[in-house]
Amino acid sequence: MKLETLKFDNVFNIQDKNRRILVTKNLSPGKAFFKERLFNVDDIEYREFNPTRSKLAASIVKKISFMPIKKDEKILYLGASHGYTPSFVSDIIGDNGLVFCLDFAPRVVRDLYMICEERKNMIPILADANKPETYKDRISNVNIIFQDIAQKIQVEILFKNLIFLNPKGYVVIAIKSRSIDVTQNPRKIFREVEEKLSSRLKIIDKRELDPFERDHILFVCQKK
């Protein structure tokens, strides 16, 4: 197996026969939280980062030009769910980074807690992202907000949480068009979302996530 270094911290491709496999350097060697494949290259362990399970991974495979999530960063992750993508964010930011992992569903947060017990750079929070006043005392300001919330008001939820974002901080937001309006053409929805985002943020890059995630787009933005 051959390891290919990418331009993003702790994210690599492994060339395995005729396949390229996206991986991160495993912060918890020997542990696969989601039955992902583990690879050992030169005595370093890597985890398979599946673009069909993660919009962040899909955007990297789709060659997003800039990704602010990097070593030592502090991040607020809205819509952490069971913790699949947050666990890879944890790999990327490393021991000196920190990711606040927020979700409102008690059942999935129980699963998230189990991962956070193994990762000192992950903090689970059971809360509603639409009500930042309920968790403002449990987090500190961050350099990045990552949002993956499939709701009609997902942009409005993001704007409410910009109070936690440092000046010139970054936003990475995944948009599911069908959650906003199932009757409209997805690209029309994407254009409308981009216009809304542009009112508060500078758009740096965007990628539609087909074929990995149908009718999804991911924006990378910076606070004005």
Q: Would you write up a description of this structure?
A:
The chain is an alpha/beta fold and 224 residues long. The chain folds into two domains: 2-50, Phosphorylase Kinase, domain 1, CATH 3.30.200; 57-223, Vaccinia Virus protein VP39 (Rossmann fold), CATH 3.40.50. The chain has helices at residues 55-61, 84-93, 106-116, 154-161, 177-180, 186-198; strands at residues 2-5, 11-16, 19-25, 38-41, 44-48, 74-78, 98-103, 122-126, 142-147, 165-176, 201-208, 216-223. Strand 4 (38-41) and strand 5 (44-48) form a beta hairpin. The model has no long low-confidence stretch (mean pLDDT 96).
- Summed over residues and divided by their number, the pLDDT gives a mean of 96
Helix share, percent: 10-25%
Radius of gyration: 17 Å
Q: End-to-end distance, in Å?
A: 43 Å
Q: What strand line-up does the widest sheet have?
A: 8-7-6-9-10-12-11
The number of helical elements comes to 6
Largest sheet: 7 strands, mixed
Tally of strands: 12
CATH topology of the largest domain: Rossmann fold
Strand content: 25-35%
CATH class of the largest domain: Alpha Beta
Shape: globular
Task: Set down the secondary structure blueprint.
Elements: E1 2-5, E2 11-16, E3 19-25, E4 38-41, E5 44-48, H1 55-61, E6 74-78, H2 84-93, E7 98-103, H3 106-116, E8 122-126, E9 142-147, H4 154-161, E10 165-176, H5 177-180, H6 186-198, E11 201-208, E12 216-223
In short:
The termini are far apart. This protein has helices at about 55-60, 85-95, 105-115, 155-160, 175-180, 185-200, and strands at about 1-5, 10-15, 20-25, 40, 45-50, 75-80, 100-105, 120-125, 140-145, 165-175, 200-210, 215-224. It is globular and about 45 Å long.
